[in-house]
Design brief:
Blueprint lengths: L13 E4 L1 H13 L5 E6 L4 H8 L3 E6 L9 H7 L4 E7 L11 H18 L4 E5 L21 E6 H4 L8 E5 L6 H14 L7 H10 L5
Parallel strand pairs: 2-3, 2-4, 4-5, 5-6
Antiparallel strand pairs: 1-7, 6-7
Helix pairs in contact: 1-6
């Protein structure tokens, strides 16, 4: 299935979850090890800290540029090191509402590609996107189209007005390095955390209503 953002997706790399929190937890458990670092951009959803630390990693915070809340490229690059395993991107952002521009995403991707080559290891973007449809005319770049090692965590709680029904997914881009094993690790992490299956009723609701998403 080619989704509306132009990135190939099929059942082989989409894992339905109990909302975005479960998606983020499973993804972090899949890609980070104890001692790794995860970069977050401030302001950020405060539960990121809990998710990161419960996965055994350390959070490294980079303050966004003001007043537009785009990424400060110099500060971002300075925060990266050999321990960096992932960067959480939340656009549109909670709490600021800011949308990262295409220029910002391209700059971010170039920096990460350079650092991957320098350090000799993969660095993942974890794109937390429950607010994707709530952009009110702003263009929201779809990060897998710009950076291969991207894992998207999504929730239908906002786009379908289903808060509390806990239904979302993890999408591992097929362009991700070793995508098959990364996806298997996400699924395994979900089971180890107790998120064995997303609620069947909610999955049926999404199947019926997904085309209603703006």
């Amino acid at each position: 299935i080619r989704n509306k953002f132009g990135c190939m997706a099929d059942a082989a790399n989409i894992y339905m979850t109990c909302g975005a929190a479960a998606a983020l937890m499973a993804t972090l458990r899949a890609v980070v090890n104890a001692g790794d670092e995860v970069v977050v951009l401030a302001p950020y959803f405060p539960e990121y800290t809990v998710f990161i630390e419960s996965a055994g990693a350390t959070q490294r915070t980079v303050k966004s540029r003001e007043p537009d809340f785009q990424i400060d490229a110099d500060a971002f690059e300075a925060a990266l090191n050999k321990k960096t395993k992932a960067v959480i991107i939340n656009s549109p952002n909670n709490p600021t509402g800011a949308v990262l521009s295409e220029e910002t995403i391209k700059n971010l991707s170039e920096i990460l590609l350079k650092k991957q080559k320098e350090y000799g290891n993969e660095i993942y973007i974890i794109a937390d996107e429950p607010y994707r449809e709530l952009a009110y005319g702003a263009e929201v770049p779809y990060i897998p189209n710009y950076y291969d090692n991207t894992i998207v965590c999504y929730s239908y709680s906002k786009s379908l007005s289903l808060p509390g029904d806990r239904i979302g997914y993890v999408f591992v881009s097929p362009k991700t390095a070793d995508a098959k094993n990364v996806f298997a690790a996400v699924c395994g992490a979900g089971r180890s955390l107790g998120y064995v299956c997303a609620p069947a009723l909610a999955q049926l609701v999404v199947g019926e209503c997904v085309d209603e998403v703006a």
